[in-house]
Amino acid sequence: MPALAPILTFAKLTIWEAARRKLLIAVVLLTLVVIGATGWVFHELHYSNGPGGGPPLGEVELLLLASQVLIFVVFLFAAVLALMSVLVSAPSISGDVESNLVLAMLARPVRRSELVLGKWLGLAVLVVLYAAGSGILELIVVDVNTGYLPPSPVGLIAYVAALGLVLLTFGLLLSTRLAGMTAAIIPLIGYFIAWVGGILGGIGTAIDNQGLIITGVVSKLLLPTDGLWRGAVYAMEPASVVASLRAAGRLSAGNPFSATDAPAPAFLAWTVFWFALMIGLTLWSFQRREL
Amino acid sequence: MLDLQERQAAAATAAASPAIHCVELTKHFGRTVALAGLTMTVPRGEVFGFLGPNGAGKTTAIKLLLGLLDPTGGEGWVLGRPLGEVAVRRRIGYLPELFRYQPWLRGGEVLRVHCELARLPRSAWGSETARVLDLVGLADRAGDRVRTYSKGMQQRLGLAAALLGTPELVFLDEPTSALDPVGRYDVRKVIHHLREQGTAVFLNSHLLTEVEMVCDRVAMVDRGRVIATGTLDELLGGRACRIRVTGLDARQRQTLLKAHDRAEDDGEWMVLRGLEPESVPDLVAEIVRLGGRVYAVEPRSETLEDRFLQLLGEGH
Fold first, then answer.
1. Nearest CA-CA distance, residue B185 and chain A, Å
2. pLDDT attached to residue B15
């Protein structure tokens, strides 16, 4: 059985590495720039004149527009988080194997499972901190500039963080066997395919096509990133938007920036199982690797 | 069944004393045989040289003994514990071959991380780190990032990490491969120091002169098998003598050569092995008595390299 102390040591090393390698600082600085820029966008929404030099936007229009712009901004953040999660996890184990560093560490009284779990934990802390930090700051900026707050800010951050964790977990699994570049490209392509799969599934729902619906479900099960993204979207939609989407019926389901319902409990349960399965596979794969 | 358990228990007890004991340890990678039945015993406190050409299975053997790889067959004990046990690694130090530490850490930080992984008490981290840094001559660079270290300094740092916590057994895999002559001398000093404090050292090397200078005993491996093992004296069979002599007929030369094990005749020069220095004048007198004319007598120690090449030649 893995012990807690070495797991924490490896987790600490992982976070330490990210901080020392300036990766964290670069991402944080860029994120602050982007948050500042979106602040300006939201400020413009609120105070500029309406269409054709008319009066500024009314309360309802502003809320609608702010919620839509926020969805696009969060999509950008989610994509950056996805990229970052993959780029830090993919070389994490393979790099240590290539440099023989893993031999020096595993010759200590530690288990391979402790190294894997420690790395996962350290990377997960980074991903959650980034999702929470950037999310909270962005929401404050939006609130200050427009007075708008999405209905479920905590849900929003949780779904975006989970999306990052999915890609991090997938990247770490591949990192036990593949070199960094390969282990990074596969989850990223998977992320895009799952996104398209979600859109196809939505279109299937709209036109009642079983084949497309199944495609959507399968892609969601293989890599639950799009399902989690829809959860984040739902957390950002004011009740009026949800109501109008529902009124539009099935036809709105193809839009990747909208969600008529919160993710089903069965999907969330599957996601939890997916994490357990992937971490289990990672442990198994690294355990069996000849070093 | 009980009988088997009893036998296993008896075997384990018998193996409890040596630093390393293994029987027919085998490792296959797919269809490649990396180690084909390694059987050996390394007593505690001994400096043991593990010699062989590149690809002979030396590193694989260390990884198996450390439990970093699972053997395909055979069994072994390290410090009296069966292979693969995690806890026994607290008493073992290891310097891997061709490795790089985290370039973003400082030298002293690498060692602290290893103190932590080795489960040394936190109160000892500072003193242990200082002790080993001093031992490998890296104390003044402990605060610098590993990124700025030369290959030799990285090697010294690795050696320092292997010495943390005063282990009972230290595995050194090609410890001098990146070092200049001064560095090699320093490593030899460290190995002598380890021997003095009773630490067993398992030294992988293809640098034969190196091994000759520090090892109590050696095993020579080739293509995954031990081809010779013993003390240096046993392996080298004492001293040799090179003599340039004329005036003897073929029969007389043969008689002389036959009297000595592994002797060679090279026209005028003869190499006679297993000679004690005191018996050289007697040999010369004998040659003169037979009518031979002696031009030169050169006492020569056979080197491990000679013996090693000879053994490799026999195997191929």
1. 24
2. 47
A9:B117 CB<8 A: yes
Using a CB–CB cut-off of 8 Å, the residues of B that contact A are 29, 63, 66, 68-69, 86-90, 92, 94, 96-102, 104-105, 113-114, 116-119, 158, 161, 171
pLDDT digits (tens, 9 = 90+) for B94-140: 999 888 899 999 999 999 999 999 999 999 999 999 999 999 999 99
In terms of phi and psi (left: phi > 0; alpha: psi -120 to 50; beta: otherwise), the region of B223 is left
DSSP state of A249: G
CA distances from B58 to A96, A290, B93, B210 (A): 21, 16, 17, 16
Cβ neighbours of residue A189 closer than 8 Å, sequence gap 6 or more: none
Asked if B20 and B80 count as a contact pair (C-beta separation under 8 A), the reply is no
Give the nearest chain A residue to B95 (CA atoms). A104
* Cα–Cα distance, A278 to A168 (Å, whole number): 11
Whether residue B96 and residue A100 make contact (CB cut-off 8 A), yes or no, is yes
Q: Which residues, at least 6 apart from A4, have a Cβ–Cβ distance to it below 8 Å?
A: none
Among the partner residues A6, A100, A108, nearest to B114 by beta-carbon distance: A108
Q: Please report residues of B whose CB lies closer than 8 A to that of A18.
A: none
The interface pTM score, or ipTM, of the predicted complex is: 0.86
Report the Cα B216 to chain-centroid distance in Å: 9
Taking a C-beta distance cutoff of 8 angstroms, is the pair A194, A79 a contact? no
Cα B49 to chain centroid distance, Å, stands at 1
Cα Rg for chain B, rounded, in angstroms? 24
**CA B11 to centroid of chain Cα atoms:** 26
Q: What is the pLDDT along chain A (291 residues), one digit of tens a residue?
A: 888 999 999 999 999 998 888 878 888 898 999 999 999 988 888 777 766 767 777 778 888 888 889 999 999 999 999 999 999 999 999 999 999 999 999 999 999 999 999 999 999 999 999 999 999 999 999 999 888 899 999 999 999 999 999 999 999 999 999 998 999 999 999 999 999 999 999 899 888 899 999 999 999 999 999 999 999 999 999 888 888 888 887 777 778 888 888 899 999 999 999 999 999 999 999 999 988
C-alpha span between A255 and A269 (Å, rounded): 24
The dihedral through the CA atoms of A60, A64, A65, A69 has a sign that is positive
Contact A12, A24 (CB under 8 A): no
Mutation for testing the B interface, residue in A15, A92, A103, A110 having most B CBs under 10 Å: A103
User: d(Cα A7, Cα A123) in Å, to the nearest integer?
Assistant: 12
Among chain A residues, the shortest Cα distance to B97 is held by: A100
The one-letter code for the residue type at A167 is: L
Q: Which of A21, A109, A290 sits opposite B118 (nearest CB)?
A: A109
What sections of chain A are H helices per DSSP?
Answer: 4-20, 23-47, 59-98, 101-106, 112-146, 153-175, 180-207, 210-222, 225-236, 239-248, 265-288
The CB density around residue A259, as the number of other CB atoms within 10 Å, is 25
